[in-house]
Design brief:
Four copies of one chain form a homotetramer. Chain A has about 210 residues and is mainly alpha-helical. The first copy, chain A, is about 75% helix and about 0% strand. Chain A contains eleven helices and no strands. Chain A is elongated, with a radius of gyration of 21 Å. Chains in contact: A-B, C-D. Chains A and B meet through α9, α10 and α11 of A and α9, α10 and α11 of B. Chain A binds a DNA duplex (21 and 21 nucleotides) through α1 and α3.
DNA sequence: CATGAATGAGAGTTCATTCAT
DNA sequence: TATGAATGAACTCTCATTCAT
């Protein structure tokens, strides 16, 4: 059994490489032509492997999306940002944190998020993955909304649900996508969105 | 328009009915299951006609989307709203007009716009139709941006392009979709968006 | 609507022809090469139609077997033979009737029965169709067994179940297949089997 | 036989175990789901080995059947029974011997015979193995038929070929399978079949 | 004008099998 | 010897589309 220890090194590493190549090719094609119009054969060709290697090393077509999604699922930055929010006692600072946190994460996951969002209707699995991503982010924003309520100093008439909606409006997926489509930098976008969100949420200073 | 007057024969009216039924069925299915996962056969069945009738009375699958799009293309309300903007001399009033105009139009065209946007990647024709719709609206917003520059009284550092972007951010397709997703009424949404856009664009009153 | 009456004659007849040709080709190939090793493409080619005409005019691969089976399902001869048995009051005559009835039916359905029996394990639908056929015949034989009990004059120790088994042994599918494999004629086989069954069932004449 | 004696090394014995495990798994799956619907991967999984081990230790998929068949090919009981027949001078005793001999062998080889018979059409190798088995048994029965002719005392009109057919009818594979399907014990079945065969072959006692 | 029948193209997937380790 | 990775070859089936009626 000597040859079966946990570091089958060469072979396993090679397999991981193959998988990576396939995933990259898939992401590129899904982004370029969309999920429905991208065939498994095309992915295989782009990755330079046989069609069925896609099946043996990743799984079917839906599995490609799933695997792509899981790549960045364990997003520690998002978790860290969420924690920072709960430790912050200033309303404006919370909004800035949210802006920077969501912006940074979504900048990084831009490609996969676009794939998920743009191909929701093409496949049930894609739709499920997209919903999952949306829900995760909205949940985090709702938590931030709760924190804002705790801190207080907001404009009148804003309950937690409403704040969550406003946060999603400004820091949700579509908002950031619009920013990137304008060609704004992360800092520029985060700054502008934070400013706008503040004016929507925080009581005007006397 | 000559052929579509009130003297259309019975057969022709019947044909128009068939076409209408098919388009409605298509819209419903595209909205529910997405373009890629909706087969022409399914549309035909939902409309209660033979598969080929879809071809003879509308055209192929892409033609369904095109036809659906043209349904509301001759949007006189949008034209009228655009004209009103050019005759208005008050910055805040212009923003309100834009809010009400875009909101009303997009409320009405909600379904088809969602289909267009959600199925961009599924088909080239859909993508083209979506781009057309986007471009038309952005163009109108850019005209409004020009009018705002003419009137003056805006915050410092805002050029025409930037204003156009901000208007698109607040009154573009995704913004309104987010509003509808929140369940806000047209008035509520238009009011809130206008307020936000004002604070982003207009110099704070002393 | 004149053209849509119940005798769309030409087109429909042509469609029926196509279907028949496909079914015949399928039966021949299934018999020759077996279900598993016969591809739909092969059936299509043998029938001289496009692959997908098989799908539109019959259904999938399992549907081919189902359709083939239903060809002779409405077997009036079997029903008639069963009725004759219930009206017969002589034990030996009943056995003869059963021999002739089953033999004639199975001679005629020889090909499809062989396909069903030989490809049970290849496909679930085939297995289901085979079971159905077996059950139908066994049920008829069990009814005949009941009749024999009613009439009486059988060897000691034979209950209805046992008689049903003996009838199935002599007049079941495998028995007849063995007969055909010997090259015996229907009359020869029916005569011999009846004689054997009699000696197994009927009390020896003093 | 040199390599298979009691001095086989540990490794070799281990290899034999693996092979045995694989063959058992294969037999179980072939019996349960049929040859065509059983994948090599399924066999490997059931045996708890890698797919390729099936290839290295047994051979391809057809080789599984072949190996299974050879398991009981060297059937000394059948040989012995055949010899006993040639030494027996009583017609009825011969029939009994044949009944007991074939029944016992086929009881033991029941599983593999069912696999062979039920999957004839699924694969050429299976068909060949099945034919081989059939031919072997028929040959033995034909020899017994010859012996019966030698002894004499049979019903009029029975030549050697006819007797061979009758023996095959009563003591062939399908006959015994039917017996097992009835749930009859070996003794019960052998007794009944022998009795029937006697009445078919032997001149009635005055 | 609307239809049923038929088609060609292509997709996803499974399978038996081999290679390098 | 046994293995995981990778492959090539089919196969079933769906779909958008056209033809003759």
């Amino acid at each position: 059994m000597a040859g079966r220890d946990y570091r089958s090194s060469v072979r396993e590493r090679h397999a991981q490489d193959t998988r990576r190549t396939i995933l990259d090719a898939a992401a590129a094609l899904f982004a370029e032509r969309g999920y429905a119009r991208t065939s498994v054969a095309a992915v295989a060709e782009a990755a330079g492997v046989a069609v069925n290697t896609v099946y043996t090393s990743v799984g079917g077509k839906p599995a490609l999306v799933t695997a792509l999604t899981e790549d960045g699922a364990r997003d520690e930055e998002a978790v860290e940002a969420a924690r920072a929010v709960t430790e912050c006692a200033d309303v404006r600072a919370v909004v800035r944190l949210v802006a920077e946190g969501t912006g940074s994460v979504q900048r990084r996951r831009q490609r996969i998020l676009a794939i998920l969002l743009d191909n929701r209707t093409a496949d049930q699995d894609v739709a499920a993955a997209a919903d999952l991503a949306v829900r995760a982010t909205r949940t985090r924003l709702d938590i931030a909304a709760g924190r804002l309520v705790e801190i207080g100093g907001l404009r009148a008439g804003l309950d937690r649900e409403r704040i969550g909606q406003i946060l999603w409006f400004y820091f949700g997926f579509e908002s950031w996508r619009t920013m990137w489509s304008f060609g704004w930098s992360l800092e520029q976008a985060a700054g502008w969105l934070a400013e706008q969100a503040e004016s929507a949420l925080v009581e005007a200073r006397p």
